[in-house]
Every structure is written in structure tokens, then in C-alpha cells.
Amino acid sequence: MAIRSVLAPKVEIPRSLYLGLGAASVAVILALWCLLTYGGITPPDFLAAPHLVVEAGIHRLSTGSLIDDTEASLTVILAGFFFASILSVPLGILMGSFKVVEALIEPITGFMRYIPVSALIPLLILWIGIGVEEKIMVIFLGTFFQQLILISDVSARVSKDLIDCSYTLGASRRQVIWRVLLPACMPGVMDNLRVTMGWAWTYLVVAELVAANSGLGYMILNAMRGLFTDVILLGVFTIGILGLITDMIFKFARRWLLPWSAEF
Amino acid sequence: MPHLDLQDVTVRFAPKRKPEVLALDRVSLAVEDNMFSVIVGPSGCGKSTLLRLVAGLQEPTSGRMLLDGAPIVGPSAERGMVFQSYTLFPWLTVRDNVMFGPKLKGQSAAEAGRIADELIAQVGLRGFEKSYPKELSGGMRQRVALARALANDPRILLMDEPFGALDSQTRQLMQELLLSIWQKHRKTVLFITHDIDEAIFLGDVVHVMTARPGRIKKSIPIDILRPRGIDTLTSEAFMSLKRQVLGLMHEEAVIADRG
Hints:
The structure holds two protein chains of two kinds.
Chain A: H1 15-38, H2 50-63, H3 65-97, H4 99-112, H5 117-128, H6 132-156, H7 160-168, H8 173-202, H9 204-207, H10 216-225, H11 229-257
Chain B: E1 4-13, E2 21-31, E3 36-40, H1 47-55, E4 62-67, E5 70-71, E6 79-82, H2 94-104, H3 109-122, H4 138-151, E7 156-160, H5 168-185, E8 188-193, H6 196-202, E9 205-209, E10 216-221, H7 236-258
Parallel strand pairs in B: 3-8, 3-9, 6-7, 7-8
Antiparallel strand pairs in B: 1-2, 1-4, 4-5, 9-10
Helix pairs in contact in B: 2-3, 2-4, 3-4, 6-7
């Protein structure tokens, strides 16, 4: 039995094979899509053909409505994610390293992380209305508690020896926090922000479920009413591509900002 | 007056829902100025705890600890420590790691840089000043850790099995390097290990500890001439000392095993 086979666990494969397999899986999905639509197996109001999705994209780009919807969604996502991160990063780092903070916050986060954001939407509408603030709040609540737990874990895992060693080099408690604990958390923080950014995108449609009049989620929901599957797919692809772009930005930002850390 | 003076130091741990553990039992130890003292003992005997007490990272349950007559309270740059695990700051270059202590003390960047460059040269890492720790081998990382601890010019250097994670060839080279640097600085060193060869090769005196609860079983002066090298390891004097320490350690290992 050859243990260097490409089918053995944890064995590196040639880059060409890796890229080839990736291209093949995309090609299979595309081929299946073409077969179902051009082959007349499914009607257009069940699944739109590829060229119809492209046409819908060109049309909505020329009228500017796709840009407007993207802009509305990006505003919601980025604002919600920004406010969640700016609070969860410092709080999470404190929570992971200070038992006092952990004792204070743990019961609330432990409870909140199991509440689906959609269950809170009725309350959010009652409290802050149906404006853009409510949508931002959905993204905020969806990401904040998850980030808090992930980042507190990063902070808890910072080596005790690294902290002790800093003390023996003459660092004060304050200096240990700012010059050692904080930088030591940065790679983990970046990785988890990247992961939760992906989750934030998945909350978008939930956020735009109620009383929206623009945004990619709204565009998808609106298209459903007229069975415009081409527009639905256009919305799905746009979200997917924007998600990929934000992911790439995080990946390169990490490499640029933290060149000293091992790769994720 | 000895440089470092431990008197009847006792440490008890009280883990949750478990019986109390007596880790160190009335340990008394005097470390003379400019001496290389080694503590050797079976694993779990509390030798690392003893070093952490001297570093100020832990407090004894009872007993007195004096450095130059002043009680030890909390960690300080005057008691520098090299750990077994890799503790370089990964976000700092080799040079910045070594400059960490001097800069905290408020020394100018130029002065800290001068100290760092000199020590980096002494540990044989010239040319690696701008490297990050992730680019270094285990032995190189421990050499930087040594330079970083020395950069503070501590009154005593504490070393907690610093070469424990290295392969045996690298470990031998590191021991020789440490001795050559020590001969230059003549720092007071308190070195912990469970490796008998390492203890005798490095030390002016070897303190053998008992199994838990840890006590100093016997202090053995090592009267082998310096500079010591690879030939020391096979010399008559070395062998007879090794036989003696091995005998003491074996008794303790048997006790610990019955434990």
C-alpha cells in the first residue's frame, strides 16, 4: 500500500492537481445548471438560465439599482460589524485574561449566544423602529456575542510563561497588558474577525427581511414575489462575491499587518 | 553573607477538592556571589517551584527569601529568568527582543541597541538581528532568550531547564556557549535541571533535591577546573561525581515511584 498516495490523509498534492480539482467542481456545477435550464428540465420560474442571470446583472448595473442595493447592504454589514468588533475585541481580551471580567460577562454571553438573531427582530422593531439602525443592530447582535467568546478564548490561550517572562524582564502589570498580552492576541483576533465577517454576511438577508426598501437581501426577497429566479440568483452571486472579497481583504491585511506571525 | 539566602521556605498547594500538597518542605539554600549553582532533582520535586519563588512569580507559604539581605517581593528585572518553553515575543525582531528590558528601564534606544548588539554577538547570532523568532531554530531562540535576560544586567540569573526541549547535540553546544558567556560576565546563576551530566558540567555546586516534598538532600561542590569542555565529560573527576549524584538521585526516584 502506498502511503504517499494522493488519497492518503495529510499528504501534499501537486498544485496543478489542486487547482484542477477546484476548477472541475465549479465546472460540474455550471454544467449541471446548464443541463437543467437549457435542457428544459426545469422551468425558468424555478431556475433561471445562466445567460438570464448575466442579462439581469447587466440591466441592473446600467440602471444603477444593483450598485444602490450593494451600497445599502455594505453600509449595514460594515457598520454592524464595525461596532461589534470595536466592542468585542477589547472586551474579549479582558474577558479571557481577567477572571473578574469573565465572571461579569460570562452568564450573559453564555445565554445570548444561543438566541437566534431572528427571534429578537420583533423586539428590535419595537425598540428602535424599522430604519437602517434596526438592520445594523441585527448584524451587531449576530456577530458581537460570537466574537466575544472567540476572542476571549484567544486571550485565554496566551502563554502564561510569556506573561511571567515579561515580569522578570521588569514589565509592570500595565506594561504586560499593553506590550505583551495585546500584541500576543492580534493574530487570533484577526483570524476570528475574518471568520465572523463571513457570518455577518449570512445575517444580511435576515436583517433585510423586515421593512427594507433597498439592499441585496431586499432585492432577493422582492424577486421571490414575482418568481424572478434570475434576480434571486444575481443577488446570491453578488453576496457570495462580496463575501469572498472581504475575506481576501482580511487575509492580505493579516499578512501585511502581522508579518511576524505564522500563517493561518 | 550569601548573595541569595533561602530560609525554611515551605510551599503548600491546596487544589480544589483534592488533598493538600506539600511541594517544598523547609528548604534552606545559600547561593554565593558569582557562583554557578545548579539544582538537580527528580521530576515533580518542586525545583521549578523553587525557582519561581526566587523570581517572585509565586509566594511561599512560609519562610524567608533574601537577595543581598533584602526580602524578595514580586518579580523584578534584577532577577532575570530563562524559561524552558520558548518565550521570545514573536512580534519583535531578535534585536527588539533583547532591547525589551533596557527600554522598559528607560534606557535610550541608542544605549539599548548597543547592549543588544553586543549580547547578540556574544551568543553568536550576528546577522540575525532583524529576524523574527518564527524564523529561528529552538537553540537559536534560547540563545536570544539568554541574551535578553542578560541585557537587564540582573543580579542573579535564573534558568529553568532552558535546554530541556533541545536535542542532545544542540544541548551540548548550548552548555558550552553558556559557560563561555558566564566566564565573561561571572553572573550569579541558579540553574534547574533533571539532567545530571548537565548539572555537573555547568555547576560550581550541585544541590540534589529529594522527591516530593522537596528538600535539599545534599550539596556537592564541583571542583572540576574551568574552562570545561567536551573532554571534561569523560574525565575521572566527572565520572566519580556523576556516580555520587546518580546514587542520590536513584534513591529519590525509587521513593517517588512508590509515592
